[in-house]
Amino acid sequence: MKFISLNSRGGNYLVVAENVAWLRSAENGQTQVGMVGSTPLLVAGTIEDVSASILAQANASGRRAGDGPPVTA
User: Fold this and answer.
1) CA 15 from chain center: how many Å?
2) Is residue 68 one of the residues assigned to a domain?
3) Are 56 and 72 in contact (CB under 8 A)?
4) Which of 16, 21, 49, 64 is least crowded, fewest Cβ atoms below 10 Å from its Cβ?
């Protein structure tokens, strides 16, 4: 299980990378992040910035045996 950080204007989130289901552009340069089994999170940044951040954090070093394959676009 790999936690990633998502920045929001109202506070920051730590979420499990594997639980990110979808991204959707929102108003004012923000992005909705769909979560498996939950309501979407509204985070700061464009969809491109958020997706790049998610991929970079999910593929960062520190992977353990059994983590599964790296996340790709």
Assistant:
1) 7
2) no
3) no
4) 64
For residue 4, the Cα-to-chain-centroid distance in whole angstroms is 6
Give domain status of residue 18, yes or no.
yes
**Count of the separate structural domains present in the chain:** 1
Domain of residue 40: give its range: 3-58
43 HSE (CA, 13 A, CB side): 28
- In angstroms, the CA 8 to CA 67 distance is 27
The torsion of the CA quartet 36, 42, 45, 51, rounded to 10 degrees, works out to 0
> 8-52: per-residue pLDDT in tens?
999 999 999 999 999 999 999 999 999 999 999 999 999 999 999
- The answer to whether 47 touches 39, Cβ cutoff 8 Å, is no
What is the C-alpha separation between 38 and 36, in angstroms, rounded? 6
Residue 65 lies in a domain: no
